[in-house]
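Table S2 (continued). Query chain:
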Amino acid sequence: MPTLLSVNNYYYPRGGAEVVFLEHNAIFADAGWRVACFCMEHPDNLPSEWSRYFIDEIEFGNSYSILEKLRRVPKVVYSFEARRKISELLDQVPADICHLHNIYHHISPSILGILREREIPTVLTLHDLKIACPEYHMLSGGKVCERCKGGNTLNLLLNRCIKHSLALSGVVLLENLVHRMLNSYRDGVSRFVVPSRFYLEKFVEWGWEEERFVHVPNFIDSHCFIPRFDAGEEFVYFGRLSGEKGVSTLIRAAAAAGVGIRIIGGGPDEDSLRELAAETGARATFTGYLRGEPLHEAIRASRAVVLPSEWYENAPLSILESYALGKPVIAASIGGIPELIREGETGAVFSSGSVEQLAHLLGLFRHYSNSTLAGMGKAARAWVEEEFSRERYHKNMLSLYRSLGVSC
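Corresponding output:
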């Protein structure tokens, strides 16, 4: 059977990209492929037989000494360590194909030259907008920003787009300039996978050739999710508590609609969101971070899940997970989100950032009958099983790999 080299910065379920990366590996391992992994060392990593090849940890948030910071900056831009270690891995395990996920700022695109030299077909799943926008969210000052369209990435430095830091923004600007000069992504990637059509269209709008992209939706294994279709009382948000997620809009809308909300997760805005809930009188319960069955049970107990995003989301797994658990979703009409909502059938959408529209929908869903909400939950579950299954994803990926000359 063929050998897949699977590459991602982290080797644990840190976020949606890592969940897709790990599940992708499991699918191909279950199909009999040999799957070798190349990642970064991290204390939360899962055990791996390939960990001896992993690069040293780099974390922007860590309290490194000045000397340690200076030593790590070149690796963020171009990692010779990553080139050396992936070469050592490929010497031992020649790969038939390489599938990349998130590699920038840690592994770095420096490895793309090695893969090209060895004539290994290379696929990159685009979980964000990095190959167009160096900040990768297309956000500046908490607002959607497309000022770098056309190539003037100096805006990154002028607006301190990376964590409001001049130094970090300068490092990422340098990274961007180096890899644009080297054509790292354009020459080193055979095909880009995009989970949403919105992202495909956005990359083309920013100057990329449409034929370089393949739309493959995200997936979940619905067998791991036990649904409940009866409606609870509260609405649920689960995810990161940061500005671009729109949780402040949800709190204001919940207060206006007089409904209860349960906010699951943590992040930099938690304290300010708690203060906002107190100021507005919103009936908001903050549960902190949950995962696994406790998270699933909280979602099953909800009336509906709310995703109030205010950035160009790609194809959020949170929507698919909510559907698999039998719950409709109320979500902001931004990025790839509308592609995952069948209006009136599996949920509803509102204009991103609109407190009034969201409050209106919360009021509607509060008054919907249990049978109406159960019907939406059942339709959502059926859609996930049909269109976003593990089997369909595997079939799509095999088709892509074969188109690149891989015998599988």
